[in-house]
């Protein structure tokens, strides 16, 4: 079984995706979700769709981590880059975390 990005399954494992799965993955991505591709027996056979959002409490959590001396931050917005509200919220969280 292989699990990962579609390009990795295609390039490293020579697995292609059926059009129906490509359409489902495109629909998920258009909603800010991330498809994880699953293949076995030489073909991509499914996707698992995952999603997460920036929480309003993220800025406070980052401040608490900084109070503990932890100053690293990772902000992943790839899946939500199309959503103006998420981009704005992520920017506010980053601004507060880096202040």
Fold and architecture overview:
There is one protein chain. Helix 3 runs parallel beside helix 4. The protein has four helices and three strands, in the order E-H-H-E-E-H-H. The protein has 99 residues and is an alpha+beta fold. The chain is elongated, with a radius of gyration of 17 Å. It is 45% helix and 18% strand. Strands 1-2-3 form a three-stranded antiparallel β-sheet. It starts with a strand and ends with a helix. The model has no long low-confidence stretch (mean pLDDT 82).
What's the short story on this structure?
The protein has 99 residues and is of the alpha+beta class.
List keywords for this structure.
alpha+beta, 99 residues, 4 helices
- Largest β sheet strand count, sense and barrel closure: 3 strands, antiparallel
Number of domains: 2
Content of β-strand: 15-25%
Measure the end-to-end span: 44 Å
Low-pLDDT parts are none
Mean pLDDT: 82
Strand order of the largest sheet: 1-2-3
Helical content stands at 40-55%
What oligomeric state best describes the polypeptide chains here? single chain
Please state the CA-atom Rg, rounded to the nearest Å.
17 Å
Question: Helical element count?
Answer: 4
Principal-axes shape call: elongated
- Which structural class is indicated by helix and strand composition? alpha+beta
* Annotation, overall tally of beta strands: 3
């Amino acid at each position: 079984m292989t699990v990962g990005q579609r390009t990795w399954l295609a390039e490293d494992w020579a697995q292609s995706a059926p059009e129906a799965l490509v359409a489902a993955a495109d629909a998920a991505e258009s909603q800010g979700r991330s498809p994880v591709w699953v293949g076995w027996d030489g073909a991509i056979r499914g996707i698992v769709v995952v999603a997460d959002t920036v929480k309003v409490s993220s800025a406070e959590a980052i401040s608490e981590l900084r109070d503990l001396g932890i100053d690293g931050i990772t902000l992943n917005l790839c899946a939500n880059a199309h959503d103006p509200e998420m981009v704005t919220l992520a920017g506010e969280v980053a601004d507060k975390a880096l202040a």
